[in-house]
């Protein structure tokens, strides 16, 4: 089933049909179909062990599939690996640069490996360091870099050869929130320059920030696809938690919201244990309206927070059952949800 190109937004940069890769009894990739249109960002969302890295490794010619077909920028991953490697860039889950070498040396070496002339590789290394604000750290060994600097260098490394398609495999897993934001900004810039990106992530929030289309996978299979609002709608969007200064006001607050007649606000509930009113939020306008309304009615509020649905909630909504995780993922997902 090839998706018809009815929107006129160009061709598919990535086309995957019936892709399978098993490791013994483990069905890492178990019949995946995927289209990524040129110039868009496809987010592949799934927990640890879902098959994301295996998919990326097949699409970057590092691993042969058992069956199925995949083309990237028109090149077959099995039959035209050398041509394909010249048109793609890969930023792995774990930084692929050499720790002992300086930032500049890493980029220069990659340029040389990609057949740039000495001069060309030098120029490109300078250019990429400048672009990723690493010029001052050019001569420092990478082991002295902060986490954010390393990821920026990793992104720079994957862009040296002007790839048409870029794979970002969990680009922010393990980063603190500030560094994560920094990487997101860089990725947004790369995307705004018209690159095609396939991004894997465990984080709904990351997918929402960066991806135009989403494919949710679990145990090697696609369990949902669509754009971000479509998927969010399935899980009921965000939740707003409002903490009144006086917890005795919880029920009066719920009443005020319910009477306001705003769309969706009938779903407001009081959580006595946490001392908050919980409101499902379907749009930014609604969020603004809720806060405005409570202000007008003279409620004193001590805290407001919005929560995105966690990956677990997405799975629950899509599959009707809890996702099964390995032990370490369980903790990770709880941390993310917290
Ligand atoms: N080289 C391998 N040999 C055996 N099993 C593997 C190998 N690579 C991945 N797996 C298994 O395949 C499944 C999918 O792994 P992976 O693609 O790394 O998932 P993700 O990147 O989504 O965390 C996991 O159960 C993993 O243990
Ligand atoms: Mg992985």
Q: Could you explain the architecture of this structure?
A:
The chain is an alpha/beta fold. It folds into two domains: 12-233, 3-Layer(aba) Sandwich (Rossmann fold), CATH 3.40.50; 238-307, Alpha-Beta Plaits. It contains twelve helices and 14 strands. The chain has helices at residues 52-59, 81-87, 103-113, 118-131, 147-159, 177-192, 204-210, 228-234, 250-259, 284-296, 311-319, 327-337, and strands spanning 12-23, 26-37, 41-45, 67-72, 75-76, 88-91, 165-169, 196-201, 213-218, 221-227, 238-244, 269-271, 276-281, 301-307. The strands form three sheets. Strands 6-7-8-3-9-10 form a six-stranded mixed beta sheet, sandwiched between helices. It has a four-stranded antiparallel beta sheet with strand order 2-1-4-5, with helices on one face. Strand 4 and strand 5 (75-76) form a beta hairpin. Mean pLDDT is 85; it is low at 1-9 and 325-334. InterPro entries: AAA+_ATPase, ABC_transporter-like_ATP-bd, ABC_transporter-like_CS, ABC_transporter_ATP-binding, DrrA, P-loop_NTPase. It holds the Pfam family ABC_tran. Residues 14-244 form the ABC transporter domain. GO terms for molecular function: ATP binding.
């Amino acid at each position: 089933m090839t998706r018809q190109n009815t929107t006129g937004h160009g061709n598919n940069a990535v086309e995957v049909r019936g892709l399978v890769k098993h490791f013994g009894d483990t069905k890492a990739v178990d019949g995946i179909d995927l289209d990524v249109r040129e110039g868009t960002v496809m987010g592949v969302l799934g927990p640890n062990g879902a098959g994301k890295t295996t998919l990326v490794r097949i699409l970057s010619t590092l691993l042969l599939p058992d069956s199925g077909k995949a083309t990237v920028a028109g090149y077959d991953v099995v039959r035209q690996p050398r041509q394909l490697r010249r048109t793609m860039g890969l930023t792995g889950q774990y930084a692929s640069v050499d720790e002992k070498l300086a930032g500049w040396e890493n980029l220069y070496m990659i340029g040389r490996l990609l057949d740039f002339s000495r001069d060309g590789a030098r120029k490109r290394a300078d250019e990429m360091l400048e672009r990723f604000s690493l010029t001052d750290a050019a001569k420092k060994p990478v082991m002295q870099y902060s986490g954010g600097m390393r990821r920026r260098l990793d992104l720079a490394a994957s862009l040296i050869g002007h790839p048409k398609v870029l794979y970002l495999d969990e680009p922010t897993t393990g980063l603190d929130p500030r560094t994560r934001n920094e990487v997101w900004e860089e990725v947004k810039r790369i995307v705004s320059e018209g690159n095609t990106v396939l991004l894997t992530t465990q984080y709904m929030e990351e997918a929402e920030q960066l991806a135009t289309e989403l494919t949710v996978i679990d145990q090697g299979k696609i369990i949902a696809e669509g754009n971000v609002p479509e998927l969010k709608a399935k899980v009921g969007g965000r939740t707003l938690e409002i903490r009144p200064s006086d917890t005795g006001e919880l029920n009066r607050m719920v009443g005020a919201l319910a009477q306001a007649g705003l769309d969706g606000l009938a779903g407001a509930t009081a959580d006595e244990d946490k001392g908050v009113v919980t409101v499902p939020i379907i749009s930014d306008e609604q969020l603004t309206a809720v806060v405005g309304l409570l202000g007008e009615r003279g409620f004193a509020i001590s805290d407001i927070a919005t929560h995105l649905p966690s990956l677990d909630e997405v799975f629950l909504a899509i599959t009707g059952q809890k996702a099964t995780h390995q032990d370490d993922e369980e903790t990770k997902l709880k941390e993310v949800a917290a």
